[in-house]
Amino acid sequence: MNILPSYQNQYVIIFLSIIISFLAVSxxxxxxxxxxxxxxxxxxxxxQTHQLINDQTSHQIEAKTWMQAAEVMAKAARQLEDLSIKxxxxxxxxxxxxxxxxxxxxxxxxxxxxxxxxxxxxAQAAQKKARTAGELERKLGSNINDYCLN
Length: 150
Fold this sequence. Notes:
By secondary structure, the chain is mostly helical. The chain has helices at about 5-55, 65-80, 90-115, 120-150. The chain has one domain (about 10-50, about 60-150). The chain starts with 5 loop residues before the first helix and ends with a helix. Mean pLDDT is about 85; it is low at about 15-25.
């Protein structure tokens, strides 16, 4: 029976421990990297839409600005959908956030159309959907932050 000397066994154990440590670290980084990708898109949406509103010279936001904001959200939804997320919980967050951005984008188009058509009922309905989506986005953002920081 050929048994490795004890010092060689120690090297094998140390080597395997190092490999396992690297694997564990790379897996945890993967979660944080995936979180970072999602959060980066969300922060970009917030920054761009905030900038669009701040660039307005009057108190009334123009339809062009609304259209640009809608496109920012639609683009973010596409970017989220294109991410390669592996973490199961983050996949759910990714899908939910993309859905919220699509809803916000569509609601923004609906509001513009309602205003152009002077349809108060449609504008109010779209506004209600926007409020609901905003509430969901705030809750989801908080959940994503909690998950990613733990």
